[in-house]
Amino acid sequence: MTHTVASDNSAGSPDQAELSALPKTAQPGTSQTGSQNLQPQKRWIVSALGVMQIFAWGSTFYLPAILAPSIAEETGWPLVWIIGSLSIGLIVAGLVSPTVGNRIDKKGGRWVLTLSCALLSIGLVITGLSTSLWMYFAGWLILGIGMGSGLYDAAFATLAQIYGLRARSAITTLTLWGGFSSTVCWPLSVWMLGLFGWRATCLIYAGILLLVCLPLIRKVLPARVRIANRPRVNSKKTPLQLSDLERKQMRLLSCSLMIAGAIGALVSVHLLLVLSGRGLSIEQMVALGALIGPAQVAGRLLEAANKERHHALWTLTMSVSLTAVGLLLLATGFELTAWAIILYGAGNGIFSIAKGAMPLFLFGSDRYARIMGRLALPSLLAQALVPALVAWLLAGFGPLPTLVLLAALGLANIVVVVLIWRTRLQYAPSATDRNTGA
Fold it and tell me: Which structural domain range is residue 177 located in?
């Protein structure tokens, strides 16, 4: 199976010229030792990454909400510290993200994602066997490294390395897989918790990552892929080269990702507390919160159905607009709450695609892994720290200031995206823009 990879021009703005077929030693699906395995088809690569994303998210980001009460009941550890372990993991994930981007650029995504599966397994084993709170925290430190090297940012960078500028459709499909993580892992975690207890649940997830996800990544993903005619670069020693315009775009995009990360974390952690001020029953609040998942998937399906007829900046614009409108409606009153949550969920679902597609659109594929690593840092730190700060706001002043804050963040992200649009007017449209209707 022959595969062509798009190349980026020297200035970093993507162009759509296709290179000729790569030599066998550089083809995706062919190892550096010169083996002549055929490239795995895109659907198998995305499917393998999708399975890993489901269990990587499900055994880290979504796990404390299910296990925390049982852990506190058995151990007597403070519930706030048990749930706060996720913040520890997110901080560590953010801190290691730039290094992860460099390693993907140097060694390839398969090596890094394999390491992630191993680290997540080790972290879950330590967590499940914890006899003290400090041992539990140590497990989450390791889980944080695994999260930083195995969640969306690393997976997107791997796809960009394999498919170059044509990775966007694969990124979109992968987010559809990831959208089912809570759908699969929340009921699975509840079932295992009731049957085996929280410790065995951690160990079972460790086994799934080690015995299912890791071999799948090793089997299906190609080894290190190098775009034809691209010189080998030591990404550790060579600084990331950005023009003045690109530095401005990167700062703005980083700001947008950070705001979106803060919004997503706030809604995930505090939505039920925010809705509690509306006089709703717990069943009504849970039912409203359950609308987010289907709305996210619906938004991503809509983007997938569009088949890249517009460029990534339109995707980002649609995402932040839907999110802002949803948050504004949420702040207005009970009658619009369901629609507010649906619009927010759709915008948040589309944002996952924009997060992977925008760096590809602005900076091309050559530097994608390193740029994704740097963009992930502020976003993950915001996800880790902002919910704790807002918990103080909720405790002291009730839900209303939090609703106002969410609406203000949604509007602020629209302003940031408008500024990104303005930077696009500072240079002539590239071939990419002409081909995608910019």
Answer: 40-220
CA dist 101 and 240 (Å) reads 11
Which residues, listed in sequence order, are joined to residue 14 by a DSSP beta bridge? 8
User: What torsion, rounded to 10 degrees, do the Cα atoms 392, 398, 404, 405 define?
Assistant: 10
Give the number of other Cβ atoms within 10 Å of residue 231's Cβ.
6
As a whole number of angstroms, the distance between CA 363 and CA 368 comes to 7
* Same domain, yes or no: 76 and 123: yes
User: What whole-number distance in Å separates Cα of residue 219 and Cα of residue 42?
Assistant: 14
For residue 397, the domain's CATH number is 1.20.1250.20
Distance CA 376, CA 356 (A): 11
Of 220, 235, 261, which one is at a domain's C-terminal end?
220
pLDDT of residue 245: 83
* Count of helices and strands (H, E) across the chain: 18, 2
**CA–CA distance, 105 with 115 (Å, rounded to integer):** 15
* Cα distances (angstroms) measured from residue 335 to each of 5, 227, 267, 308, 330: 50, 53, 19, 35, 9
Same domain, 203 and 317: no
Q: Are strands 6-8 and 14-18 parallel, antiparallel or unpaired?
A: antiparallel
Rounded to whole angstroms, how far apart are CA atoms 208 and 210? 6
Tell me, what amino acid is at 158?
T
- Output b/e per residue, 161-185; b: 16+ Cβ within 10 A: bbbbbbbbbbbbbbbbbbbbbbeeb
Are 249 and 214 members of one domain? no
Beta bridge partners of 18: 6
Q: Are residues 130 and 265 in the same domain?
A: no
Using 50 as the pLDDT threshold, list the residues of the chain that sit under it: 1-40, 228-229, 231, 235, 428, 430-438
What pLDDT shows up at residue 17?
37
Domain count, the chain: 2
Residue of 316, 418, 404, 415 lying closest to 359 (CA atoms): 316
Residue with tokens 């910019």: 438
Q: What is the largest CA-CA distance in the chain?
A: 66
